[in-house]
Amino acid sequence: MAPVEFEKKIRNALEKREIQPSKEAWQRIANRLDKEGPAPSRSRSTWWYLAAACLVLLIGARIFLVEEEGALPLPAPQVAATPGETPVASPATQEPVLEMVVTTQEAPMDQETVSQPEPVQPRLPETIADAAIAVAPEGVNQPDTLDLDARIDAEVDRLVAAVAALEAGEGTVTDAQIDSLLQAAQADIARTLPGVTSESTDPMALLAEVEDDLNRSFRDDIFNRLKNGFIKVRTAVAARNQ
Amino acid sequence: MKIITLFRNEKALIRKAAAGDRDAQRALYEQLAPRMLATCRRYIRDRHFAEDVMVEGFVKVFKNLGQYRFEGAFEAWVRRIMVRESIDYLRKRQFVVFQEELPEPQTRPAPASDFLELEQIEACIDALPEGYRMVFILAAVEGYSHPEIARMLDISEGTSKSQLYKARQVLQAQLSTLAKHRYGTR
Predict the structure, then answer these.
(1) Residue A26 and residue B20: Cβ atoms within 8 Å?
(2) Residue B56: predicted pLDDT
(3) Where are the domains of chain B?
(4) In sequence order, what are the residues at sequence separation of 6 or more whose Cβ sits closer than 8 angstroms to the Cβ of residue A194?
(5) Which of A167, A219, B35, B99 lies 20 to 30 angstroms, CA to CA, from A12?
């Protein structure tokens, strides 16, 4: 007998087979169902899984963004050490570290700690910062251009003074240091815009807040304007010195 | 027309049973239980153990009825659950040993009637070693492929094929012996 034919006969015979279960069998099933109830429906669990997946994605994205911003170069240490204070020592290098200057509303930069070749404009009053309106991508109010210009001019002056101080202390100032100063100034301007909290003095936290609340084009715009202003002033100073 | 009505009735019955209607569940049970017990019995020699497995299988069926999407026959869906439940039962009790050696041919009493009678066939299948029997039933009776059997039993496809080959050899020898006794010829 060929296997296929022989198996077909067996299959046909077995498929007709029926065995009556005992009378207690149904009662046992019913008791079990009463005790255990139905299994949770897949649709509900699917929604839970979806919600959990979304949450994980959001948390992951947030962590990624924070880490990405943390990987940005820290604003380079600026300005000379404060005369009356002992320099803060880095735990790793034990070398004197320049004081990190982060301009905040609560603690405006102490102008006397910096040896500046030119007078620096005092910090703009609060009202000017308040006048600058946070910029949103589209359909949102733009900041007052005049106020913003004034802030940028003030920051440019402060930058020139800071760079001059660094040059006086170290001899040369690298492009990276200038970029860091520009970024810090950009963050400082953005931080004073309405809607941005300014209680923290941690530069990275401030940068993160600014990153969150401003769109990139506006930040680039501030950065470029600061940079252009800085280059203009430096060129003018260099021409005058010559 | 009758078939459509029957189908609609079964669909309505399944929906009610899925919602927890005990009467609908009982109706489905009574409709399917004899065939499902026979299915379990193919894998498990002892009828009472087979019934235990069938009860377990029906509990699972009714608890998970909401997952049935009306794709394919309902009976086939229930049968798959019973088959898996039977395999789990045998594996948990470590009854399954996949022998590589052919067993000694067993002498069987002469059949009283046609050798393809149901009891005769069942007796021959029951006489197979557990591994041969499971693979043979899964492949020849239930129609599973070797990759499916390999996954279900956690064995290689090669083992599945060799077990089926040997089961066929043993069964054919037994049935030939029965035929010889019955008809006096081969």
Answers:
(1) no
(2) 94
(3) 2-92, 118-183
(4) A130, A132, A133, A134
(5) B99
